[in-house]
Amino acid sequence: MSRRRCLVFDWNGTLIEDKDEKRLFKYLLEKQIIESLKTLRLGKYILLKRINKKLEKLYTNVYDSHTDFNVIETIFELYNKNVIRGISVGKIEKYIEEYAKEAYKRLDKRILIPLQYRYENKQFSDLIYIISSGYDYGIKTILEKANYNLIFDFIIANKLIHNKYESKTFSLEILENKLDVLKDLLEKNSISASNTAYIGDSALDLECLRFVGYPIVSYFADADFKEFCRDTIKATILELPQDFTDFLDSF
Question: To 10 degrees, what angle do helices 69-79 and 22-38 make?
Fold first, then answer.
């Protein structure tokens, strides 16, 4: 194994304040509701309003625990079938670019500014990755809006499945299998887990945090999760603004 090191970040609740992709999904749905009214497709408008109510109930159930995978899958099925399918890829990308104009303000500068400084001053030979169950184009666009996109060597996240012209579904290939993705990433780059830092915020990240040599719990993580990880896996807990910079200096 190489002695090269690796920093791996979760996205939601770690690099961005949003604990999930609810805001993004709601934004895309609202855009479709508005368009259905403008084009006088009243049947579509009524359907989308009903779907919105169903999704709100499901969001309440799932995002309290972050671990109810069946409910997450139901959300994706409803969303893909009734909101995403048939929309042009260009239109979705346009909506994402509009969304990023506000979303980038919720990025965690306490993490990203120290990374950016080291990138610009060529102080890193480490690999820096994101592994996320979020939407890859959304992640890339938000980071690009804030000029942080070049920091990361690669982003592994869920994708929009489409044909040449129309969207089909948001994939859900990455969810509870983050550890498998992480292991594959390290094996391909000949990096040991002991030389890897993983930064996450929730139970979806717990297996990865247990696996690596440097487990770190993000600033945005809930207090209970921070306490659990501090007590059980001796994780580094990010609390003070200087904490992540101090970690990088010692890594």
Answer: 20
Q: Are the CB atoms for 118 and 245 separated by under 8 Å?
A: no
Q: Which residues contact 69 (CB under 8 A, 6 or more apart)?
A: 175, 176
- Domains along the chain with CATH numbers: 6-18+106-250 (3.40.50.1000), 22-103 (no CATH)
Asked if the model's pLDDT at residue 36 lies above 80, the reply is: yes
Give the pLDDT band of residue 56 (cuts 50, 70, 90): confident
Distance (Å, whole) CA 104 – CA 61: 27
- Residue (of 105, 101, 172, 162) closest to 133 by Cα position: 172
Q: What is the pLDDT of residues 197-241, one digit of tens each?
A: 999 999 999 999 999 999 999 999 999 999 999 999 999 999 999
Bridge partners, residue 155, by sequence: 130
**Residues 6+ positions from 156 with CB-CB distance below 8 Å:** 129, 130, 131, 132, 136, 174, 181, 185
State yes or no: pLDDT of 65 exceeds 50: no
Number of other CB atoms surrounding residue 14 within 10 Å: 26
Residues with Cβ within 8 Å of 154's Cβ and at least 6 positions away in sequence, in order, are 127, 129, 130
Q: Are 204 and 176 in contact (CB under 8 A)?
A: yes
